[in-house]
Structure formats: C-alpha cells, structure tokens
Amino acid sequence: MRKILAIIGLLMITSQLFSQLVVAEQDELKRFEKTKTIAFLEPNPLLVYNRIIKDVMEKHWDVTEFEVKKYDGEEFEQLRLDPNLSFLMINRIYYERDKTRAQYQFLNLSLGGNYELAAQMPTISGLPISYVDVEEDTYDYKLGLILRFIQEHIKVSMEHPDLNKSRKMIRFYRKELTDIHDKTLYVLKEELGPEVNTLQEIKDVYPHDVKIATKEEITKVINSRDPDAVILHQVGPKNTKRKARCWNVIMGADDAKLYYFNYHMIKRGKRPEGLLKKDFKRLSRQ
User: Fold this and answer.
1) 95-123 tens-digit pLDDT
2) Dihedral of the alpha carbons of 49, 116, 128, 92, in degrees to the nearest 10
3) Are 235 and 129 in contact (CB under 8 A)?
4) Would you tell me how many other CB atoms lie within 10 Å of the CB of residue 123?
5) In a 3-state reduction of DSSP, which class is residue 220?
C-alpha cells in the first residue's frame, strides 16, 4: 500500500477536473459503514501529521469508529485482510497518462478484505493533499476539512447510486456548484498569484469578501464550522517541479461542499502557481 500506485485510465485529466474522484460500488459503501477505520501514522515520526491526526479525527470524523495506529508493514499485511476494517492512509499516486509524471500525495480511505494484493483493496474516497516532496505545512492546518470532504463524498455516493462512473460524479459536482458571493473566502498570502496578492487587486476583479488569513485562523474557522466561510485548498509543486499543474478547489468550512475546482498548467512568466486573476473572474461570474 505504501508503494506508488499507478492509476490507469481511472480518470482523464481535463480542465474541468480537480482530482481522482473515486466512485465506489454500493455494496462496498454499505460494508464500509460497519467497519472500524484504522488511521495509520506516517513512518517518519517527526511529521506534524502524526502528532495531530488523532485530535483532528476526534473533531471531524463521525462516519465510523476509528483507531490511530503506528504503521508497521507486517501488521498492515495481516490487518488489511479483515473485511471489518477500513484504512485511512497517505498514498503516493501518479497518472500514467500524465506527461508531467507528477506524483501526488492522496489521503485515501480503503476497505479491507481477502484481496491478494494491497493495490486491489477498494478505495472508496480520497483527496489529493499535496505533491510528493512538498512540505506538509501546505495542508496540515486544514486536515479537518479534508477529512470532512472524504466523508461527504461517501455520503453523496450513497445517496446517489446512479452516479456510478467518475464522469457522472464530476458532472454532478459541477452542477451543484454555487456562488460564494455571500461568504468569506479564506486564502493564504502565498496561495495568491502575483496579479492578485493584495485585497485591492482582488477587489478589482472580485468585489466580494476575501480574507488573507494565517494558517491558525483557517484552522479555527474549520474547527468552528463557520457557515459563512469557504476555504481554498491548493495543490501545487511549490517550486519542487518546473512542469506541473496547480489545482485550486474551494470548500465550505461547515459542510465541505465543493464550490469551485479547476487547474492550470504552470508556465514561467505567463501562468504562475497560485489562485490567479482568471480564477477570481470565474468566481465573480459563477
């Protein structure tokens, strides 16, 4: 499970696609409800993730009973055969059809069972959290929101069994997008493109409430489930890779609903990493 997973034809990467949107079978979803979720710590004991995941799950995880465990390869190989268990783990993923050969870190939720290989375990929900080799402080402060989206995606899948293909699921999310004009958009300074990195520059193209916040402020808003706040979740290379995509997704702080998702190819001098002026223009029209 810790090896790099190749996603072959699972999703085509298009301009309207943010991530690998897993579509689970209904029997898998029903089985998941009865499982106990094991959240494995990362092998590196120095990671902040290992220190905070238990507290974050206590605040934001409510779909199953859970336990946080130190990762051990031999123990995992035994536990993963148990159909009464599910597993929350960080996996490395790349898309074989992606010419950039970028590797992403996903926080994935998978089902245990009598599968010959760990790679055969059904993944029922997940979300990209960063590129590989990007510092964890780009996502650790919003783990609560990421966990809630993972659970929300499961609920959507169960409530809409007709959404049995990834493209149908993407169309559903697109159709459900609504404007955020009556909410406050929380972003980090470093997540903004150079043309819109002040409130005045943003206001020129997006005349609605934006808060250039600290990570601590965003964590507080997520923990309080502020219904009037939306949070930017950005997945970019952070100067670790020259040819790459920058993904921008906006989620509700209270319900983890998707309000916006898109990406652009980073091109030096033309399309920098960040939430760009064109994104704010789209948000203004949405």
Assistant:
1) 777 777 788 999 999 999 999 999 899 99
2) 70
3) yes
4) 22
5) helix
For residue 52, how many other CB atoms are within 10 A of its CB?
A: 15
Residues in the chain where the model's pLDDT stays below 50 = 2-19
Amino acid 21: pLDDT: 58
Instruction: Tell me the whole-structure pTM to 2 decimals.
Output: 0.91
Q: Which one-letter amino acid corresponds to residue 204? A: D
Q: What is the pLDDT of residue 173?
A: 87
pLDDT at 22: 66
The full set of domain ranges for the chain reads 5-161, 177-285
Residue that the structure tokens 């402020």 belong to: 217
Calpha distance 23→18 (Å, rounded): 15
Alpha carbon distance 77, 67 (integer Å): 17
Q: pLDDT tens for residues 76-97?
A: 999 999 999 999 999 988 777 7
Cα separation, 25 vs 213, in Å, equals 39
Both tokens assigned to 74 = 């031999």
The CA distances from residue 120 to 67, 114, 131, in Å, are 23, 10, 23
Which regions of the chain does DSSP assign to beta strands (E)? Answer: 5-7, 36-40, 65-69, 85-95, 103-111, 123-131, 184-188, 210-213, 229-235, 245-252, 258-265
Quote helix, strand, coil % in the chain, to nearest 5: 35, 25, 40
CA distances from 18 to 22, 112, 122, 172, 259 (A): 12, 27, 21, 13, 12
Burial environment of residue 129 by CB neighbours within 10 A (0 to 12, 13 to 18, 19 or more)? buried
pLDDT of residue 103: 86
Q: Is 202 exposed, middle or buried (0-12, 13-18, 19+ CB in 10 A)?
A: buried
